[in-house]
Description:
By secondary structure, the chain is of the alpha+beta class. Helices cover 53% and strands 18% of the residues. β6 and β7 form a beta hairpin.
Amino acid sequence: MNQEQIFQERVMEVYPQGVYFDSLKTEEEGKSAILNSVIPKVIFDDKKEQRIIKFIKIDNVGKLTINRDNKFIFETKPDVIRNRIDEGLVEIRTKTEQIVLAAIYDRLAKIAMVRTTLNPVYIILKNVYEKKLTKKSLLNYPKRDKYMRYIKFLCDLEILREQSDRYSEGNCFIQIEKALNDKNEEEIVNRVFGLTIKEGKTYLLNNLNINVLKPFIRIANIYYLSSILFNKMLYIKKENLFDNYLRAYGLNTKFVNFESYIDQLNKANILSEDGFVHGEKTILSKVMELMGKSNISPSIS
């Protein structure tokens, strides 16, 4: 048995299915192999009754080393390999969530649950646009401490700028105003509101506990990532998208709640539903464009 066969036999005996190595590397102690993993993902287009299998690749999940007598002197433990695969999948999901969010952020203000939960942010942005957010006026705000926390958050994002007696548009706000100079107030404030969610997502989730964002971003991510892997617009039964969503995120969401999320995504023109759930062409094109510019390459075949 040659050295490559020795490594191959150990990989098959010890590690989960999908773990493999590309080549052996000579080291001072002997030979080593970096272990990678591929995870199969089955994707269905329910309307056209098509199925494809893609493989998501996770690099560098472990290592094997043998000495000159072909005895193993280092082996990454199987549990460590499994944990690294799980961490790799979470990392890919997190990165693709950011890409999908960048493609849909300007539509999030149309989602009632998001708008209601973040209404203080919307009020602040609207008042700044209308030149009404003075420091004196803030003294009369109910729950002033809460508003000041949001204002600091918006200033840190350069969406607002603090002046001696008031808060005004920051660089990001001004750029949107210039880009949408022929639009009305609602469209401009909605776009800035969406940008706030896009740029401040981590802070909103981790520091302000704004968890209402999660299901909408996650469902959109599950749908558009599947379409990217399929390389075209998918038409998926709502029940199947629900199953994919639960599996991907390890959730126990009730179907009735999922239906309400789909309904609101539909009203916001982020997803559409007409017997099958499908995406919007402009969003899919934007996601494909952003994915191409990123260093994310979840699919290998």
